[in-house]
Amino acid sequence: MATHDHHGNHHHGGARYRFCPRCAGSLSPRVLKENEPERLVCDKCSFIFYQDPKVVAGAVCVLNGGVVLLRRGIEPAMGKWVFPGGYVDRGESTAEAAVRETREESYLEVVTRSLLGVYSYPGNPNVIIVYVADVVGGKLAAGDESTEAGVFPPARIPWDELAFHSTTEALKDYGRLYWPEQMC
Fold this sequence. Notes:
Nucleoside Triphosphate Pyrophosphohydrolase; 12 strands; about 40% strand; mainly beta; three-stranded antiparallel β-sheet
């Protein structure tokens, strides 16, 4: 089974689940209902192992008239630019995750202002929830998963160097809402 990163690209090396988390029996793919995907079902206890989507939260924030972007220092899309974001932890709200990920990845303190959009793609297990956030403190710097942090005004956004489809879509949505005269 291929895995994906939080913005929609394939991770390398993902292994297919083989054992039941309840009884350690073997899992086998089965169609349980017509028009639904195959599910992994335990051959021993009949437990259905649902492979739920992964939820990702990110923040588009503006500093000195431009959006904050980070150059990725890890795969996938190493060397490409992305806004701060990452996986939501169990029990954490998506807004809390966007704030936490922004702090961890850019050293900026932000508060979420509004929901920008929700992005999902066929064949991809990730649902990306992006907020507009206001910077309220901190000093911009690249966190441990990035090699560089930058601020890009609308005319300088590196469109051809963005990491993921969701990065491009969210920045275009942001531009249409907040910089319409500059995004034509």
